[in-house]
Amino acid sequence: MLRIEKLSKRFDSKVVLDNVSLEAADGDNLVIFGRSGTGKSVLLKCIVRLLETDSGKIFIQDYDVLSLEIKELNNLRKQIGFLFQSAALFDSMSVRHNLEFPLVRNFNFTPKEREEKIVSVLEKVSLLDAIDKMPSELSGGMRKRVGLARAIITEPKLMLYDEPTTGLDPITSKEISMLILELQKSLKMTSVVVTHDLLCAEIIADRAIMLNEGKIIFEGSLEEMTSSNDEFLIKFFKHEVINKSEISNA
Amino acid sequence: MIKDIDLYFLSEPIFNKFQLKVYKFLKKIMAKRNLSYSYQLSLEKRLNEFFIMLAGLWTFSIQFFKYVFVPPYEVYEIRKHMNELGIRTFPIVSVTGFIIGLVVAMQTQPVLARFGAESNLPGAVGISIVRELGPVITALIFAGRVSSGIGAELGSMRVTEQIDAMEVGAINPFKFLVVTRIFACTFILPVLTVYVIFISLFGAYIAVLLVQNMTFEFYLGSVLRSVEFGDAIPGILKTFVFGFIVGVVGSYKGYTTTNGTEGVGKASTTAVVVSSLLILIFDMILVKITLWLWPSV
User: Fold this and answer.
1) What is the pTM for the complete model shown?
2) Which DSSP category does B130 fall into?
3) Does the pLDDT of residue B263 top 50, yes or no?
4) CB-nearest partner of A77 from B72, B160, B170
5) What average pLDDT does the structure give for chain B?
6) Which of B123, B110, B120, B115 has the alpha carbon at shortest distance from B211?
7) Which of A149, B74, B142, B234 has the greatest count of CB atoms below 10 A from its CB?
8) Which residues of B fall within a CB distance of 8 Å from A48?
């Protein structure tokens, strides 16, 4: 479904992605870990060509994404869902219109079919009550759910999640992660999830990748990653017991 | 999009040549004045920003004409923006228009009285309002109210990734967000200008009434006898250009916002400054063109 070959991206002199190669097969759930600022979100944005790359190749369903004309790219984008870190709901539209927006413009559904689809996805994310609310009336978790509903309403084959649980409490975070897994199973999507939430990864991940300073430093199952003896991985996953004297000295 | 603008800018030979000439000229001045290296760098950076903005505004204008005739026409969005922009500006242009008419008449009356030409007051005030004051004042108020609004609106959409979300959803955000706003601005400003002209003339009548006992019918008759059709047309026509400027500048500043909420504030304020300045520059050019094309006007 998704194949990235030797992808590099820099902003001025700062190298953000350095020869990154990865692959996600059909139905795969790939989780990408990494510290803040290591290029995880940049990688996702490069996949959908929101950012131009410096070198490398990206293939989605064997289409060479970087060489597509804008019309072909948009046709491919219709098969991709993207959940942004901030959910990126359109402020000026109600939940209903947010969900209706891609359907009206990209597909030839009748108003009745559109309404059915909207109701169906909102039921999936348990937010049917919020159908006529504005984004400003929703909590952080609700916004994420609506963002997720908007992303899956077109039934994409590839779903990209940019830190889906960031800024949420542990309970909501778990609910969202479970929801992502359920949706992935019911819609048979391939998912690429960027996160640093271990709980979320434990629920979702089939495979995991660790990105550090623009390079992939580990690829394998989540168990292998968390039990690795690599110094960086140990530091990343193992919560060190902090000495009380350390806190008082800080 | 930001990248496209840079590329467009580089591919425009006219900008390149002009930019190089300005750089050379500035370097000569800097060498003569012995300016510090850091000052030279900051000057170059600002100059670069200026050229990027020029190229960006140019690109936005070209892209507007490229997309405005391509379906879907987003009629609902255009109507919505026209309603919002009209309503947003209506109270302030009403008050300002009335006061401007009143003040101009009050200021003109003693000058005309000095030459014994007081009876020409309605005509003199009418001509200045219809030809210049009405269109320019409305455009400047419109720029202050609308350009900053568009800049802030699109800027916050940019920093909260809403524009990216549209792009990923295979929807052209430029067409949906920018083209509709520029179109609405271009066609709502002339309507507001006509309204402001009438309100200003009414304000002027109140001022006339304070010093002369004149009926409204007589006042209006005097104005209409003095103001010819040829006075009104160029004045109204140029407001289409002013509206276009407000739309393009506000959209460009908002659409290309960077640096989070700080950037949104900056986009909003610079949109007002740039659009007001461009309105005045284009007014100067359009007045000159009008006088050149129709010397009798």
Assistant:
1) 0.86
2) I
3) yes
4) B170
5) 87
6) B110
7) B142
8) 168
